[in-house]
Amino acid sequence: MKKRSLTFNTIIYGFRTIINFLFPLITFPYASRILSVDSMGKVNFSASIVSYFSLLAGLGIQTFAVREGAKIREDRKKTSEFASEIFTLNLITTLLAYALFLLMLACNEKWHEYTGIMLIISLTVPLTTIGMEWVFTIYEDFFYITVRSVIVQIASIIFLFLFVKTDKDLYLYAVYTVFSAVGANILNVFLVHKHVDIRLHISKKILPCMKPILILFASTAACQVYLYSDTTILGYLTSDADVAKYNAAVKVYNLVKNVLLVIGTVSMPRLAGLLSDENLDRYKGLFTKLFNVLILLIVPCVVGLIVVGKNAVVILAGARYVQAGTILQILSLAVPASILGSFVASAGLVLFGKEVLILKATIAAALLNIVLNIILIPSVGVEAAAITTVLSECLAFAIEYRGLQEKKIVSGIGKNMIQTVIASAVMGSVCYGVLSCFGSSLIIGTACSVAAGVVIYALLLRLQKNEIFDEMYAKMKTKIVRK
Predict the structure, then answer these.
(1) How confident is the model at residue 226, as a pLDDT?
(2) Do the Cβ atoms of 26 and 156 come closer than 8 Å?
(3) Least crowded by CB within 10 Å, which of 90, 137, 165, 233?
(4) How high is the mean pLDDT of the chain?
(5) Angle of CA points 178, 10, 309, to nearest 5°
């Protein structure tokens, strides 16, 4: 199997992630102006409920499949047998999860007013399962994943603009959200045979795998709880309008977060391969390098969100969502812990078989988030949901990082951290100054502020002779010269 470089995979998958979030940034302003705030809140609340059943259907299988599949991917026969067993298990859990969803939908009176929307959004559950995206991740086929995603996102935009034209088209907007999120998985069904031969296959071999799968599921479940409990609790304790405002901020927050998470996603198969080959020193070197790259990217993103966050939300969703700007500024403080914690967990602890530690960290974070949400939301309001997210992410990261460092994986990050903080602080001052100069020119001021910030940050890293940045700059320069 031909391996593409980690740099190529990161760039191409990063492009896919940006596209997947830029298209909603194009369509959300349209939808938020066509549909009422309450209607948007109904969709957000329904999606948060369905996410729990989607989680149950997934059962933590994807992470386990990538970790174990990457070790045997050179042998098509073994990988096909393994993939068939995993897919069959996933199909069973999906049927059980969907049956439970329908039962609870019939019994829960609170959900009855959302029945139509929930049924539509629940289609994400089976579509995620049949998509088997973990197969393409095992083989680092990120180029295909990216091209496929772009095609589906373009089709989704066309559908939205053609069919969603008034507040009465709420159900069609729900269809759009499903297709844009998992519509690409339909294509996977026809192309998965490129890598493996899938069939329904139940084997006793899967039984020893159930323990790590269930531990990963419990960890993912706890993580999902504190990620989506904000929206769910807001839906019960406040209004649909507050849910919509909170989710407008979360959209921008997730754009930044998911672009940065690309590094962990594309590096996991490669790092797993190094451990299987017993190249621990090479693993430590690559892990530390990627950790430093994340620091280099995360800190300026946080500063940028604090400075231009309010403008970004108003540009995205309109003046009705101005309160979401403050929510976004609070959420930005969760970015470092969220990104670094995810990287430590997926590219570190999972590969060392420390799923139990991840479970403990996520349960602690989930409990903290739920308790604080219930206590603070009634008195503080919607901003409390953002505050609890920050605290929960920090707790989870602290536990996970401490567990990883028992193996002394990360070292030599101090100098890079200091240089990054200095450059980001100066960048933030420049961005704020540029933003102030443009006054009421919202879009132009925000664009100029971001552009100036990127230039200043890069120059300051060069002046400080930041080793990570210089290496990235040299590689980019070399590739441009070759072309």
Answers:
(1) 63
(2) no
(3) 165
(4) 84
(5) 65
